[in-house]
Every structure is written in C-alpha cells, then in structure tokens.
C-alpha cells in the first residue's frame, strides 16, 4: 500500500528544486509589490480628503473579501477582453501582489494607529511637515509593531504561490502536477512539494523573529543596549 | 462677535499672546468660555485650577493642537488661528499655521520624545527638517542646549534609557532648539517621580531668568508657581475666575473658588 520509490524521488528532485526557484521568485516579487503598494493603500486612507479615504477603504475591503484564485483568473482571462493582455507571470504577480498589498495595508494601518497620539502632537509642535512626520517619525515607530504581521504575510504569500499554477506559472505545484500526469505517480512529487515548503517556511519564520528583535534594538526601542 | 470684527493685526507693542473672546466646545460641553487673556513679552504666567477647568486646553489651542470654535488667538501681533483676507479674518490655512506655529514651543506632560532617536537626534530633528539648518549647525545648537539642561553626557542615549526627569529635560532642549518666542509647559512634572521634579524645575527657573522667553505654564506645583510666576491665573469652569500676582493669589485670594481650591491643594500636598 505504501509504495514510496526512492529512485523516482531522486529522479524528479532536480526538476522540483528548479521549480522552487520560480516559487521563491514569485513570492519575492509579489511580496515586494505588496510591501510598496500596501503602504500606498494604507497612506491613501489617511489623506485630508474624506472621499479618497473612503474609496481606498472600500477597495482594500473588496480585495480582501474576494478569493485570490478568482483575482488571478480575472487578471489573466478577463484582462484581454479589455485589451490588457499579460503573460501568466505578469498577471500572477499583479494579482498576488495586490491581494497581499490589501492585507499588508491593514498591518501598516494597525501599526500606525498604535503609535501614541503624543508623537503626532510633538511633530506638530515642532512644525514638521506631513512627509517628515510619516517617514521620519511615525512609520519608524509603527514598524516594530507591524513586523510580526508583515512576517506572517511573507510566509503566507509564499504558501499561496501554488495558486499561480492555475494560469500556468511553472512554480512548484505546477511542476508537481506535470510530473504526476507524466508518470501517474503523485505520492513522491506532492510529498516533496510539502517538504520543500516546510524547509523554507520554518527557518524563514524563525529568521523573522530574530530580525524583529534586531530592528527593535537598532531603533533604540529596548531599555538595555 | 463675528470673525470680521477682529483686527487683522494688533498694534505694535501689544501683548506677545492674546486670546480674544476664545470659546472651545467639545460637543455640548463648553471647556473654555469667551476667554480673554493677554500675555506680555517675557512674562511668565502660571495657569492653575481643578482638573476639567480648561487649563491644558488653553495651551493646546495656542499650540494649534486643538481648533477653536470662536474668537481669535494672536501671537506677536499676528492672528494665529486666522489669517487676513479682504479686510477681515478667515480661518487659517495649513500654510499659515505652519508659518505662525514656529513662534511657539511646547513641552508635554509625557515628554513625547521620539523613542527611535537619541537625545541629540531629538534636538536636531526639527532644526534640520523645518528650519533648514545644516547638520553641523543643528548639532552645535543641540549640544549647547543639552549642556544647558545638564545632559551633554547623555547625548547619544535613546529616551527609553533615560530617567523621566532626564527625558523631560531633553524635551525642553528639543523645544528650545526651534528658538520659539513663546514656550508652553503643560504639567511638565506631573508624570515624574518626586525625586526628579527638582531637576526639571531648576531648568525652567534658569530659562526664566536667563532667556527672553514668554512662558505659559500649566502646573500643579503651587510652590513653584508662587516662586517663579509674574502672574497666576486661576481657571474654574472654563473661565478665569481670578488672576493676579502670585503673592496676592496665594496670599490673599479674593474669589471663594480660589480659596477652596488652594486650601484643598495645600492640604493635600
């Protein structure tokens, strides 16, 4: 019943490891987009213009409340009807980047709101401009509170990259599916995919915790040096 | 009075700060009711009174942390909360506020130092970013001020590694680095342990005697207010119930509320 074949395992391993690079690339690019666009989403909800703030709030809610896989399909298959013809990679990066940007904007928002009101008042009393207030004072303090959430979504986006297989991005899951349909063996490819994900997720999560502690020390937010 | 009836600027030689018929409400609660208060250049005015009497709101309005509902605040002859237009006054724009706010500095009850910056960086931040000083100029100015408050040796420490008294002294240096004409002190010793209050008060004493600063101080330190003030204002229910020289307010208060307040405070403390 339990029919694990080591020779087959080693035969498919190089292909899967190669696909792992694509998975890492997809997660990395998607996350960079999400980090940047997420900040735009968060700040665009704090403008002096109520209408802009509400529209951005609704957009973020909309993105968060619809499934990622639907968004991927939408960009890739519906886009061309509006003349937007993108490769699977480009479609996938836009969809997953925006999806996680919506999540990250909430993390940023909570981080910004956690900065005490007195900090804003000190900025005003010292006559700092809005840009300096955000980028010099508020965001550096929001960062430590935001890091755990940001780290969770880094692992999250990595684990969601298999969804890109539905539009043919040749990442791990896509490759494992292809191996399965070529050889009619699914046990080894899927098991390997799981193991590879674990071996990347777990150290990443541990590394993120060390990074958080380092950032706190670096910003002088600990009582002891 | 409508905003049109206020002068677009005050006569030269007038007060450094003028609250002209200022009213502030939170919803249906009137925290300051038709406040009239002039503070002369170099004057040290203490504001005392029970909690909820509107003391702190006076400072927060002057620092433009709170908007006022009625009246006009003038600083150095110019309207702060409003700006001249077509011969009358209209609500100040952000640009106007940014220009006028530079004359005012504030020290807060909870210090509000920037925790991710050292003492020195806290004092350099606004001079570099707002006044456009070079880093060298700003550093020289900041070091002078940290020496003034007795913390030159702590310049590279982050606020969390300083005592409350030290943090408050850095906060004073930070406010002074902007060279304000008016300094607002909002219960600056209320969050401090008793043993470090003295070091902060002695810095304020020194500022008052050696610098040309107009100061408005909300305080619960009655002894200090009596010693240092040119004038003491007793606030009650959003109004100035009584004001006068400290000897008179503390020695021979005329208002029944003042007497009650002072006897309660002096008994407690």
What is the approximate shape of chain A?
A: flat
Q: How many domain regions of chain A? A: 1
Assembly type of the chains comes to heterodimer
Share of helical residues of chain A: over 70%
In percent, how much strand structure appears in the residues of chain B? Answer: 25-35%
Q: What is the H/E string of chain B?
A: EEEHEEEEHEHHHEHEHEEHH
CATH topology of chain A: MetI-like fold
- Using only C-alpha atoms, the radius of gyration of chain A works out to 21 Å
CATH architecture of chain A: Orthogonal Bundle
How many domain regions of chain B? 2
Major pleated sheet of chain A = none
Low-confidence runs of chain A (pLDDT<50, min 5 residues)?
A: none
H/E element string of chain A?
A: HHHHHHHH
CATH class identity of chain A: Mainly Alpha
Structure in words:
The complex is a heterodimer of chains A (225) and B (269). By secondary structure, chain A is an all-alpha fold. Chain A has a single domain, classed as MetI-like fold. Chain A has 8 helices and no strands. Chain B is α/β, with parallel strands linked by helices. Chain B has 2 domains: 187 residues, P-loop containing nucleotide triphosphate hydrolases (Rossmann fold), CATH 3.40.50; 67 residues, no CATH class. Helix content of chain B is 36%, strand content 25%. Chain B has 9 helices and 12 strands. Chain B has a 6-stranded mixed sheet with strand order 8-9-10-3-11-12, with helices on both faces. In chain B, strands 2-1-4-5 form a 4-stranded antiparallel sheet, with helices on one face. In chain B, strand 1 and strand 2 form a beta hairpin. In chain B, helix 4 crosses helix 5. The longest helix of chain B has 17 residues. Chain B is globular. In chain B, 48% of the residues are buried. Chains A and B meet through helix 5 and helix 6 of A and strand 8 and helix 3 of B.
